[in-house]
Amino acid sequence: MTAQMLQSYAATLNAMMAHTTDKLRSSVDALANAEGLPPDIADRASMESGRNFTLLMRERDRQALEAIREALARIEAGEYGICEDCGENIAPARLAVQPMATLCVHCQGLREEDRRPSVDAASGFFQI
Ligand SMILES: [Zn+2]
């Protein structure tokens, strides 16, 4: 990977970090402003689900921020764009869409297969 490519990934990651930090900050404000319960029960319910949604989004943003920081650290360490599992280079096209990627397409696919419940276990229900 060229220094120029690394620089452009770092720029993308830094922009993502600024954006995500902003989003996190405004969600903190949204939660702080949501003090005081409205008298109507339906309003309360919708406020509650809005609050849960905000908390969920915050958790996702927090995780994204962590992944961005780790990616920037890998750039610093000269380990950026190398698959964690097989040590091969991650395709530039993949990094362009997902600059925080730690796995090549192949290994990512293998991990997703692992997470899927196995077909054998499911078909066991139908064996008599
Ligand atoms: Zn791999």
From TrEMBL:
It holds the Pfam family zf-dskA_traR. SUPFAM superfamilies: DnaK suppressor protein DksA, alpha-hairpin domain, Glucocorticoid receptor-like (DNA-binding domain). A zinc finger (dksA C4-type) spans 83-107. Keywords: Metal-binding, Zinc, Zinc-finger. Residues 78-112 form the Zinc finger DksA/TraR C4-type domain. PROSITE patterns: ZF_DKSA_1, ZF_DKSA_2. GO terms for molecular function: zinc ion binding. It comes from the Bacteria. Gene3D superfamilies: DksA, coiled-coil domain. Residues 8-75 form the DnaK suppressor protein DksA N-terminal domain. PANTHER family: GENERAL STRESS PROTEIN 16O, RNA POLYMERASE-BINDING TRANSCRIPTION FACTOR DKSA-RELATED. This is RNA polymerase-binding transcription factor DksA. It comes from Fundidesulfovibrio magnetotacticus. The gene is dksA_1.
